[in-house]
C-alpha cells in the first residue's frame, strides 16, 4: 500500500481544535492529509518480537491506513490514523506491552545495533546497555530533541557519531609477546595502519592511529594479541538536519557499567549550560568541548585536549 494512502477523512474535525504540539510530543504527528496522524511506536534499539510486529500490523489495519513506515531511528510508524482513533490505538498497543514514542524537546527512544550477542563484529552488548539507558532516560525533558545511539563496533552502522550522544564499541589491544610468532597477520589486517613490525617482526601499535576495531585480536591464530580493555568510545554533540554536525570525540574505553553516569552527567550539564531550542552540539560550540568534558566525562576516560583519539602508549 502506498505510504500516503489517505483515509480522507474518516472522522470529521471536532468542534475543539486539537493541541497539535501536545500530540506531537506524545508521538502523534500530523500528516499532510487533514485529521490524519502518524503514530510512532516506541522501539528500544530496534528490537521487536514477531508478536510485536503482528500487533503493529493489526493496529495499522484497524486504526490506520494499513501502512507502516520505518523511521531511520528504528521506529515503526503507523500511518493514516484519524484523531478519533488514537485513544483506541494506544490502548491496543498497551495490551501488547507497547506504547507511542516521543517527539519534541526530550530524550528520544534509544537506537542501536544488535550487539555482540548477534553481530560477529560487535565488541560490546549494545542491546543490554542501550535498553538500560532507554529505561532510565527516555522522555527526560531537554532544551531540544536529544538522541542517544549505540554501535557495537567501529563500523558505526547506526551513525552514533551523528547523535547528540553516541557510544561506539572499541577495545584497547595488547600483545602477549610470549605467544607471538611474528606471523604478520595482525599487521596485514590492520586497515588503519596502526601496526608495524619491529626488528624481530613483532607488532608495535601506534596508539594515535589505532581505532580499537579489534581486527588484530580476531585474526591472531595464537591469541597473542588480546583485548586488554573493552568499552565504548563516546561522541557528543552530533546532529543531522539542515546543518549537520559531527560529534566531538570525548572519551575512550568507557566500561559498559559506566555509560549511564555519562548520560546523566551530560543531560545535567546540558540543562544548566543550554537554552531552549539549542541542541547539545550548539551548546558545545558556544562554551567549548573542554567545558563539557570537565563536567560530564570522568578524567580516567577523557580524550586529551585537541586529540582525536587517546588509546595509550605503544604496545610492544
List keywords for this structure.
316 residues, alpha+beta, Alpha-Beta Plaits, Sulfite Reductase Hemoprotein, domain 1, 2 domains, five-stranded mixed beta sheet, four-stranded antiparallel beta sheet, 9 helices, 11 strands, disordered N terminus, disordered C terminus
Question: Can you give a write-up of this model?
Answer:
By secondary structure, the protein is of the alpha+beta class. It folds into two domains: 20-95, Alpha-Beta Plaits (2-Layer Sandwich), CATH 3.30.70.3340; 111-301, Sulfite Reductase Hemoprotein, domain 1. It has helices at residues 20-25, 50-63, 86-95, 126-137, 185-189, 215-219, 259-273, 280-287, 289-296; strands at residues 28-30, 36-40, 68-70, 76-82, 111-112, 148-151, 165-175, 195-197, 203-205, 225-236, 248-254. The strands form three sheets. The chain has a five-stranded mixed beta sheet. Helix 2 packs antiparallel against helix 3 and helix 4 (126-137) packs parallel to helix 7 (259-273). The chain is globular. The chain starts with 19 loop residues before the first helix and ends in a 20-residue tail after the last helix. Mean pLDDT is 90; it is low at 1-15 and 309-316.
Amino acid at each position: 500500500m502506498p505510504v500516503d494512502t489517505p483515509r480522507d477523512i474518516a472522522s470529521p474535525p471536532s468542534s475543539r481544535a486539537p493541541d497539535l504540539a501536545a500530540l506531537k510530543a506524545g508521538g502523534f504527528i500530523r500528516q499532510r492529509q487533514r485529521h490524519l496522524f502518524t503514530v510512532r511506536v516506541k522501539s528500544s534499539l530496534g528490537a521487536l518480537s514477531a508478536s510485536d510486529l503482528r500487533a503493529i500490523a493489526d493496529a495499522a489495519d484497524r486504526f490506520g491506513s494499513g501502512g507502516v513506515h520505518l523511521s531511520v531511528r528504528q521506529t515503526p510508524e503507523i500511518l493514516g490514523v484519524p484523531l478519533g482513533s488514537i485513544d483506541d490505538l494506544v490502548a491496543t498497543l498497551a495490551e501488547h506491552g507497547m506504547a507511542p514514542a516521543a517527539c519534541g524537546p526530550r530524550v528520544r527512544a534509544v537506537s542501536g545495533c544488535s550487539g555482540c550477542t548477534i553481530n560477529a563484529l560487535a565488541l560490546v552488548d549494545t542491546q543490554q546497555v542501550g535498553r538500560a539507558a532507554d529505561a532510565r532516560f527516555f522522555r527526560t525533558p531537554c532544551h531540544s530533541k536529544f538522541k542517544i545511539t549505540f554501535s557495537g563496533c567501529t563500523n558505526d552502522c547506526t551513525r552514533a557519531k551523528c547523535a547528540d550522544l553516541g557510544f561506539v564499541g572499541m577495545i584497547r589491544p595488547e600483545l602477549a609477546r610470549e605467544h607471538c610468532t611474528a606471523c604478520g597477520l595482525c599487521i596485514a589486517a590492520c586497515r588503519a595502519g596502526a601496526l608495524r613490525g619491529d626488528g624481530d617482526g613483532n607488532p608495535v601499535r601506534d596508539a594515535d592511529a589505532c581505532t580499537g576495531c579489534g581486527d588484530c585480536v580476531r585474526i591472531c591464530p595464537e591469541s597473542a594479541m588480546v583485548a586488554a580493555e573493552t568499552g565504548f568510545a563516546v561522541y557528543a554533540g552530533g546532529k543531522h538536519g539542515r546543518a549537520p554536525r559531527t560529534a566531538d570525540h570525548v572519551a575512550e574505553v568507557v566500561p559498559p557499567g559506566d555509560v549511564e553516569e555519562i548520560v546523566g552527567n551530560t543531560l545535567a550539564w546540558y540543562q544548566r549550560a543550554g537554552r531552549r531550542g539549542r541542541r547539545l552540539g550548539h551548546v558545545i560550540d558556544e562554551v567549548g568541548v573542554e567545558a563539557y568534558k570537565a563536567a560530564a566525562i570522568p578524567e580516567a576516560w577523557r580524550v586529551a585536549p585537541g586529540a582525536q583519539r587517546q588509546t595509550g602508549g605503544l604496545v610492544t
